[in-house]
Queue: 3 jobs
Job 1
Amino acid sequence: MSGAISLQQDFFVCDFFAAVPKHDLASMEHPLFSLSTRPDRRILEYEHNGVQVTVTPSVKGRATIFDADILIFCISQLMAALNAGRPTARTLTLTAHDLLVATGRETSGDGYKRLREAFERLAGTRITTNIVTGDQETTTGFGLIEAWQIVRKTRGGRMVSVAVTLSEWLYRAILAKSVLTLSRDYFRMRKPLERRLYELARKHCGRQAAWQVSVETLCKKSGSASPRRVFRAMLREIIREGRIPDYDLTEEPGDLIRVTPKSALVEPGQGRGPILSPAALDEARALIPGADVYALEAEWRAMWAAMGRKALRSPDKAFLGWVRRRAIT
């Protein structure tokens, strides 16, 4: 257990089943998490385009990219509540089993043990940065989570219910909706670098036709501690295997990497696909309360692309008709 949580504090109960996975933009943009599978006790100093980040691990090591699954689960739950108009709080109570299942982890005794170790690394890792969250830019230091506590456990000592208090920095980012939707296949990726490359592709490519980046910059932004030649070899293996969801990576002359969406959302000859109005997105929110309307839009666009990218007389009507059918099923 790390950092006692006051029982007087307001709690948010995680009860949105199958909430759409979300991650905060800052964690996707900057290398806050270790890619090492062994205890990483090095201090990370990172600077890029005016952003400074120092990550200081505890004696148990720096929080890993797999530990971040806990934060993704919490962010996803809070965003589902915000989209449904429900009140939220910085302290969340969650069922350990639900967290393990949602993030594709084992529910064995070892799974619970590793979950506890992840909480300890998250609470012990300290960040000092000037990254903007919401509309505030301040240089501040904080833990990735402020505190955690086993609220209920079995007779054998296995955690059942856990309370987690997020940092003010992260909670402010969530309230400002500075988050992006992740593929549900994210949790199936077992290579740390694969996950990190997906995060960078999702953040920088998004719905653009492509994102081009040098291997040098990609190595820096990934947070990899490997020498450049080793990083390049790992990158080529990942490109060859092609298991990163939603995006294709290709190596180009000049030591460059080009990232493109697998299901391009660009309509040939027109520069972009069907344009939806803000009113249509608002109506979609009303039709399926609590749903991530942008994830629905992306799913609809993928279906439209798979069906031959037919010209639509009224994209709004086509999209809302599809949403209504989804609401019924």
Note: Confidence is low (pLDDT under 50) at residues 264-271.
Job 2
Amino acid sequence: MEFDFAEEQPKFLMLMYGLIAFVAVVGSLLLLLDVVPAWFARRREAQLVAASVSGTPLPRRPKRGEGLFALFFLLPTLLLLTVGLVVPAIRTTLLSFMDAGSNDWVGLRNYGWMFSDSSIVRVLINTLVWVVLVPLVATGFGLIYAVLVDKARFEAVAKSLIFLPMAISFVGASIIWKFVYAYRGEGDQIGLLNQIVVSLGGEPKQWLLESPLNTLLLIVIMVWIQAGFAMVVLSAAIKSIPGDIVEAARLDGVSPWQMFWQITIPSIRPALIVVAVTLTIATLKVFDIVRTSTNGNYDTSVIASEMYNQAFRYGQNGQGSALAVFLFILVIPVVIYQIRNLRQQREG
């Protein structure tokens, strides 16, 4: 198929306008962040010189001026949050109460559809399985690995090996694992998993077509990526345990198992909570892995992928928006819990 530049010209123009707008906005913000603080610094320096020459006390900066100065730096962030988060969230909530074409109000019908349609109930169950297994398994693997390689001879190399998948995008990791799960009829297999099965005398399978096994295999991809993150955070927490506590426990004759449960786990509890909460939020929003691996087919869809399909593939704006709002509601309690936990740690 030949490429027609004239036909694609409007897309290139839109891309160019977007790049120009991005450069203009970011450049303006960088310029302001460079010029304004420098201006205030020069002004304060002039006041210091004048006060030292005249012998008069340095005038105190008014509280109102400090508030305006802080507001100046917060304004870009508040503006971006309003445009990129608050306004879309309000609009999506309103669309969730409207029909597919966003023309007429339908009340709670879209939310009733979400819990009554068998295919969507399956999506919700899949999401629950993801949220339960991914944080639990990834945190568990990361913790065990961090404990085993702590102070080992090749600790840096061992940590690098498990952390490497974090450098790969979800899409790239999904493509890699699609080759692992690949199926090629009878004979030689290009998929690592099927080749192992054939070598052991078994029959090759189309792994990503068999439900609910395919959902578990997709979860493996997420665990493979996120275990490195859990390992890094928990390893840092383990190294921050005071040495005198460890030495005192060893002098008391505790076993390695008792050391793990009675010393290590209580000491790194805040880090465990941070890792679990972070992975839970990331899992609730998972989209790339499902989209790349199965496109949500064969009973593997989750809320984020189904939201995309309903809104952009099937033209059901109301149903897609209802799924988006429901996903947002699921994330809120986790975020609130994390904020309260961080506040308690700071006060403690």
Note: The longest helix spans residues 5-54.
Job 3
Amino acid sequence: MRTKAVAATTALLALGLTACGAEFTPGPGATTASAHYPVTVENCGEKLTFAQKPARVVTNDVNITELMLSLGLADRMAGYVMPDDKGRVDKVAWKDGYQQTQWLSKKVLTKEIALDAKADLVFAGWHYGFDEGSGVTPQAFKALGVDSYVLSESCRSGKGAERGVMDPLDALYTDLANLGAIFDVKDRADQLIAESRATIAAVPRPERRPSVFLYDSGQDKPYTAGKFAAADEIIAKAGGTNIMGDLADTWVTAGWESVVQRDPEVIVINNYATPGAEEKRKFLKSFPPLANVAAVRNDRIFVMDYVDLVESPRNPAAISTLADFLRTVPAR
């Protein structure tokens, strides 16, 4: 989701695809090579059936692209759509995957991009490429004969019952497991899920939970993370408390008065696009209403990349890194 400014032990391995909603349904007379197909997975409450392994996948944005790359699926991709500000990718274990597929567009996902790439599957999400306003939807692609898979984190998008469908990390594990089923890479998916769970489980329990404000963007009013955003669970797993965790929304506009009143001990900057992290830091430190806020007064401002704070295979490492920083925060 480009936010408003731009619009893992044997027991763990046993948590396989069934627990995450995928089921194998071999067809009549299936051979060893095709025994896994057709395969049906549950995606955002809908059953999706694949008669064969998709071969030309178009992904939208860095987090969704890296879900594919982290499973070694660059060879099943026709390409990806993402802005120039995808951030640094040279330190991720799957960095070579970016060189094995094509950067189709630095703008927004369109039906034309997918059709020109001869896509047989579009992997995007609501507010991560799919948008009813522009007509770029799973339904529209279906009418064109192209399958879609929706990022599970974005099942939250919408109103009413669509909120709170799945915790963000459960969404990550679900998508990894579903992709493992769809592309017949179950072992890779199980390993990555197990490693992710183990990384998060190894984060030390804090003696106290510092209060954290997630600053995405905005000067007149701050754009931040509510309780349904992936960032809320990332902060919680790292040992902090999101001061806007009472807002029943994903990414949401709040008021500076609320930030001042809740007096966060740490501010996490969501780094992407323009203005960059340093510009955001300068603004926060020079904005008069924040002068007496503990995080600003004590210069406890921590920068995280956009891809760390939305559903992605980087989440476990991001939680560990943020936890290291939060443990340096002294008691009030």
Note: The chain has twelve helices and 15 strands.
